[in-house]
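Here is an idea for our session: we take a single protein and study its fold together. To get us started, please write out a protein record for me. Start from the sequence, derive the backbone structure tokens from it, and show both lines together. Go ahead whenever you are ready, and we will take it from there:
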Amino acid sequence: MNVKILFLLLVLTLTSCGPTRVPVEVDRLPTLNTSGIKRIAVMPFEADNPSYRGLASYATSVAIEKISGTGHFTLVDATEVRHIQRRRQNVENYVDAMFIGRITRAVVEKDSKTSQHKDKKGNAYNSTTYYTKVEIEFSYSLKMARDGRLIGPVSRKGTASAYSTDGYPSADELLRGALASQLAFIRQDIAPYKSTEMRTIAEDKSEDDVLKTEMKEALAHVKAQNYKLALQAYLGIYERYKSPAAGENASIIYEVLGDTESALNIMQRVYNDTGNPTTQLVIARLRKIIDDKAKLSVSEQQDPISRVTAFASEEIQKVLHNNAVVWLYNNSSGNAMVEAVADNLTAYFIRKGIGVVDRQNTALVAAEQRLQLSGAVNDAEMVKLGNAAGAKTIVIIGIAGFGAMRRLQVRVLDIERGIPIMQSDTDERWLM
């Protein structure tokens, strides 16, 4: 047999005998706890040394690109934030957090080496190789607009080197490259992300020939990416033989199909049935994945406005009568956060089939403005106006306190009886 053919057969044999691995996509939490942050302003990077200013400017542009690329945040213009700060206004109405960074160190090392060579004719000549090596250190954090609290910092260090026979490679280009390579981690530092992990299909170590044959048939389905057939096969094998390997493989296929809960359940069953100690490692990994997914789900609902609105909606509905018609009155006119709460509550009530007075009604808007301008709004006036608007219940919303102690205030009036039937308290669930 030809030597080349023998070599190819050997390569194919070694390849086919290796373990089979399948990719699984896993949701991961970011390094920093950014739950509740939706709007970010990327502020210009600062520099510990004036010579780093160009690098700081470059870092700012890369950070904007990376944060925008996450698709998880709304970017707010840093220039607008600066204007608001100079006017001593509250930036929280415009942004949830500011991304801030600092270049702390940048080092450049250059070296050259000259060596002697001979050409084909034996003539000696010298050649010089030029080396450039750089190292850069920086950090970044998120500064909460609400209370100035810092989330972070994340500190990073990047290195790069190059050589040339035509002169020293550009230190500036190397520094920018080292900076960009480390700024690429911004995504996983501040935003949830998906990670592809490889799972190795387990082999059964028993001497049962029938079991081995069935495991090979199931493996063939995996290699052909017929995952549902593979899952049925492994589950059947486990039922018949209580093979830990078949149970683990069924768990892996469940993960491939996106059903982590079932993956955990089958592994828990394997442990209960067999007591196999290696299953505990798989169970721990699966539990962490499920816990992370639950935290991600919660973090998506953790922005202050959505969280407080959901709570307020539940509390208000507890006191509403059947066939209620609600008038939502904004007692903090001009406050963007209260307007957002009012819009969200309107959407909640409509989805629940609760009648809501049109807040854009021109006559009602004019009446609201007169009440606000008067500066003294009593329950009797509110009830009279609500009755005229066709409402049965008035929900008065506003904001009390500042910064970290700011909270939503809600008061509910029954129009028919002319009395308050609900008043929010100082419970932290009202905090915004």
Summary: The chain has three domains: 35-106+138-157+168-190, 197-296, 304-430. The radius of gyration is 32 Å. The mean pLDDT is 87.
